[in-house]
Amino acid sequence: MGIYILKNYDSVKSQNFYETNKFKNPFNDLNSAIIDSFTIYKSEEEVKDPINLQEEYLNVNIKNNAQGYNNRLNVINRYPNIKYIIEDTSEDRLNTNIEDDLNEETISNLKNDSDFYLILNIENKKNVLESADSNFTKEQLKNIINNDSFNYRNTENKNLKISYFVPKSFIYEDEISLGKENYNKLKSKALVEKAILLSAVLVTLTILALIYLNIQRKDKNKDKGILERLYNKIYIEFQTVILCIALILIISIAYESLKEPVYTILLGIAMIGTYYLMAFTYGSIIEVKELGIKEFFRRKSLIYKIINWVKKIVRRIVEEVFLIKSTGIKISIFLILSFMFMISMLSLRGSSDFITLILVIYILTYIISVISYVVKSANYLNKIVVGSFKIANGDLNYVIDEGGKGILKELSHNINNMKSGLKDSIDSEIKSERMKTELITNVSHDLKTPLTSIITYVDLIKNEDLTKEERMDYIKVLERKSERLKILIEDLFEASKAASGEVELNIEKVDITSLLKQALAEFEEKIKESSLDFKINLPKEKLYIMVDGKKTWRILENQISNALKYSLENTRVYINIEDIDNKVVITIKNISAFEIDFNEDEILERFKRGDKSRNTEGSGLGLAISNNLTKLQGGDFRVSVDGDLFKVIIEFPKV
């Protein structure tokens, strides 16, 4: 019924037949044909003699006037039920298809017998309906008459009067009579209006029922049947396609059911199935409220999954290709040139000679360039592989040629650097092993010396023949050696903590000048007893640094102690504090009492001493401890050697 209504919607909505397109379109075509045939061609004689054609005809550029006249005559003859009169009052000329004499009585009878009549005086071209005489209102006529059908170009300076009469009973069977018959049948079916009302009610009830069911459904998964659960697992795109196919099927069967009533049974089955599909699809779509649009499409959309998969693949390819930008650019250029190569190959056939020549030149250039590039790259790559094989087999002196270009040059350069790094690592490991051996030796020596003395003097004390004075002397030696052993052990633990970074620091604002003065005051007696001349150069203003006061005091103490122990007698020791580029620089210089034949870096290692005979009381840990404590506090500790001049440089950022 819906399809039937749609097919005849124009008739359904119109109040009378004359407002439908079944009448309006033929009537306006007839109107145009009558005006053209009357104003342009006038008579058959003028049609046969083109020389006598009117200027109006020439202006509309009609090339074949005879054919144009016949076309318009065919239109007029197609609608014999419509009676017409057209006259030009200025030329006293008229044309009509009415056989009776045209007098007032005839015109009056025609009006009375007409279901629709219209008499127009075409004087006002902008509003032809202004002086219309009709049994229809002007508002109705506006919906019937198309102003464009009045050919204004051909009615200029004309006083035309056109009359149309459509009888209540048609004599001839033409398009208009059939259209009116169909209209009357359609309007006579009150079922149409009832069907529209019934369909509206059913659709409304269906929508309300679906809404009600979804509101009342508490446990959606429990209430869903097996078919709906299976349907919900289908991607939303497939659900939409299935539903569209079902709707198309309904329309097709409904159309066929208009011809064959037996199809109505199939239509009912299809509508029931489609109803369930609509309900299932609706149940899927409302999940958008719960999940959100993005999550809904992520779970239920195949297109979304495909797009995401493609995005991941493209992103991965781009990331891998452009991991090194230059490589990515080269690959992109190669792909573009390869694509152009393929297009060129496909375009060879059917191209002009000139285009073919250009394409052949490009193809040959591309092939030669690619082959040349591949051969050079393969040759250089082989050299890199051979070189890396030699290096891997222990030939660390082998150097790979870095004369290539691009990424392969960087690869060979990196392999050479790796080789140098490996060699340095091996040298460092050898040095580390040697230092471990020396460390064990030095620790053993430094701990063994006081320990041996302690054991010896303990045995001596056991002798009962000793005098009291001798026994007291031995006890003093034991006390001194024990203190020496204690200092060694404490220094060892402190050096280990400082090296591992496990020292607790109490950072505060400290005046380094005052701290150095305190340290020098502690050693004042020893400095006086020594033959050394300490030259102290301190700034007058205060210099503040952010450090741990106790740990920094230990650093300064170690350096002053070393200067007293290892300086050549009767020489000077210089201690300076300077403000250089917002850094506090502490410099301690002295002349070594022993020949300096050690490396500047090695002296900072644990248990390294300038006195290789290890006869002095130093532990060899002072410089190592000072170095680590300085770095832990954000400073810099360096040792410089110039002949026998030994210099320690300590830097801290100035506050």
Automatic annotation (TrEMBL):
Q: Which PROSITE patterns match?
A: HAMP, HIS_KIN
Asked if the Swiss-Prot or TrEMBL record annotates the protein with the keyword Kinase, the reply is yes
- Which keywords does this Swiss-Prot/TrEMBL entry list? ATP-binding, Cell membrane, Kinase, Membrane, Nucleotide-binding, Phosphoprotein, Transferase, Transmembrane, Transmembrane helix, Two-component regulatory system
Q: Name one Pfam family in it.
A: HisKA
Q: Which reaction does it catalyse?
A: ATP + protein L-histidine = ADP + protein N-phospho-L-histidine
User: EC number(s) in its UniProt entry?
Assistant: 2.7.13.3
Protein name stated in the entry: histidine kinase
